Amino acid sequence: MMKCEIIRDLLPMYCDGLCSEASKQEIEAHVAQCEGCRAFLAEMNEEAPVPSLSPESETEARVLQGVKKKFSRGRRRAVLLAVAVMLIFSIVLAGAADVPQPVSYTDGLVTAELAVDEVIDLYYHGGSYDSFHGFSREVDGRNAVFLYFDRTLRSDVMPDREGHLCIGNGLLTDFETATYQVDRQVDAVYYLVGDYLELPGLAQAEFEQAVADAVLLWER
């Protein structure tokens, strides 16, 4: 077994990892049994100088740190931009989903029949819809009801259903969406897409011109 003097001479090489494997095993076996050499090794480890970076290494470290920070800031900006775009897109999509679009008339879109209790039943066959609009006004000496349906992106993805409206007792009613007051005596029902805030107030000549393309659904 090596003497303490030899072990202590080899300890600097051991700390630097320069010893052979055989010497390393011999040193570790000796230090495990010798308290003095073990304490000497502990002092060497405590006094080992912390390697300092050269000016070139410090410069490289600062450059790498700056690049890392710049990349991190760029990535954060990209993430925030993506989140903002998605948020704006979601808001626009949610708003567009509720924008009403009038349903143009096609053959068989709405059918009408007079019930035994003098109620006029109207049936919508165009799939799901969002709402409808209606008003009544005299045309050619007869009381007429005008109406049309709206759809939205949201209603387009809903399951198809048959809408049912009825006209009676002075009301045009869809029990799921809206009710409008109309004349109690109705002689004709028309389908007409238009501005239902403006149409009722037009002069008679202008009104008759505006409703020239109305589709007759029912008449007495």
Concise summary:
Helices cover 41% and strands 25% of the residues. With 220 residues, it is an alpha+beta fold. Strand 2 and strand 3 (120-124) form a beta hairpin.
Overall spatial form: rod-shaped
Q: Can you write the helix and strand succession as a string?
A: HHHHEEEEEHEEEEHE
**Mean pLDDT across residues:** 85
Q: Termini distance?
A: 125 Å
Account of the 3D structure:
The protein is of the alpha+beta class. It is 41% helix and 25% strand. The protein has two domains: 4-47, no CATH class; 101-219, no CATH class. It has six helices and ten strands, in the order H-H-H-H-E-E-E-E-E-H-E-E-E-E-H-E. Strands 1, 4, 5, 9 and 10 form a five-stranded mixed β-sheet that branches. A five-stranded antiparallel β-sheet has the order 2-3-6-7-8, with no helix packed on it. Strand 4 and strand 5 (142-151) form a beta hairpin.
Topology:
Elements (H helix, E strand, L loop, with lengths): L3 H12 L5 H13 L1 H13 L7 H42 L4 E2 L7 E5 L5 E5 L6 E9 L2 E10 L1 H4 L6 E6 L2 E4 L3 E4 L6 E4 L12 H7 L4 E5 L1
Parallel strand pairs: 5-9
Antiparallel strand pairs: 1-5, 2-3, 3-6, 4-5, 6-7, 7-8, 9-10
Helix pairs in contact: 1-2, 1-3, 2-3
